Amino acid sequence: MSKRTFAVGDIQGCLDPLKRLLDHVKFDPSKDQLWCVGDLVNRGPDSLGALTFLYDMRKSLKVVLGNHDLHLLAMASGHSPKKDKDLTKIIESENSEKLLKWLSKRPLFYRDKERKLAMCHAGIPPMWDVKKAEALSDEVEAVLQSPKADKFYKHMYGNEPHIWEDSLSGMERIRCIVNYFTRMRFIGPHGELDLNEKGNVIKQDNDLQPWFHYQIANKKYQLLFGHWAALGGVFDHPNVTGLDTGCVWGGPMTLMHIESGQRYLCALDDKKVTHV
Fold first, then answer.
1. pTM higher than 0.85
2. Tell me, what CATH number does 19's domain have?
3. Cα–Cα distance measured from residue 183 to residue 195, given in angstroms and rounded to the nearest whole number
4. Which of 12, 27, 176, 276 is the most exposed place for a label (fewest CB within 10 A)?
5. Burial of residue 4, with CB atoms counted within 10 A of its CB: 0-12 exposed, 13-18 middle, 19 or more buried
6. DSSP at 88
7. If you count DSSP H runs as helices and E runs as strands, how many of each does the chain have, helices first?
8. Per the domain annotation, does 178 fall within a domain?
9. Is 173 within 8 Å of 142 (Cβ atoms)?
10. Which residues on adjacent β-strands are paired with residue 242?
11. At how many degrees (to 10) do helices 96-104 and 47-56 cross?
């Protein structure tokens, strides 16, 4: 069997449907590759089990960080204003050190230059092309691997700055990059972030649109993203593919075979896998 590549939407601790999907397609970690669009943990029934499962097959994964993954890392650093019980199980587990160290080394953005594929959790704002997105992701990754990580987690939470400027510096710059990559849904005509609106695309006016409705500078790339369960993975845009179909909210988890575009769906409490 030739090597295959699959991409999965937000897992958020929903281990059982992930396993059923991978079993259904006969995923072979020695040959196949799985891309994860972030939010591996939180709100689902088994975040520790999901993170452990993915860590054990880490050589077959490409993973980008989502906002819930960063929330876990901030909790572990003692800087989260909210303490989630499901994430506490990870932090208090005997394998927490290796799991959190591995997670903290994941990027915010990944691209496959040869196949013209890219991936991030929430999206890319229109003022960044893939080259810039990769460079900004590298900036954040460098901070997370340095003694500055603790300072960042302390200052991570917040909605400002709400618009990108190249002149931004320090933790404000890093927080702004992280917010675009992991929390963005709607933006204004100049790239202004609106981090309060979480609905679907139909409700918006001309001054506030989904990030992918604006002219974006990555037309040569297909961008995979998650984060926005309200979209249901269905919208009309040729260059972006949404994979979060809200498994943790009662919807299915989506696994997509990248080479063919075939999608496989499985809900949290349903043992049946369907095709789209």
1. yes
2. 3.60.21.10
3. 7
4. 276
5. middle
6. H
7. 8, 13
8. no
9. no
10. 225
11. 70
